[in-house]
Amino acid sequence: MTGTVLAFDEHVGLGQVRTDDGAGYGFHCVAIADGSRAVEVGAAVSFGLAAGLHGRWEAVDLRPLPLNGS
What is the pTM assigned to this prediction? Predict the structure, then answer.
């Protein structure tokens, strides 16, 4: 799936990503694939989904998408 990071609180480690079709999913900083535990709000990302601890789908394996022309 692909989408955009809508929000990310680096202090808490939680964020929200919205798919291109408008669905929203939460994520935890450990779900960022490069291990940095940080992501820019507004970044285009690819990600997968996994069942979370509270019965909701969560974004996992977040990876930044290359910028156009890169």
Answer: 0.87
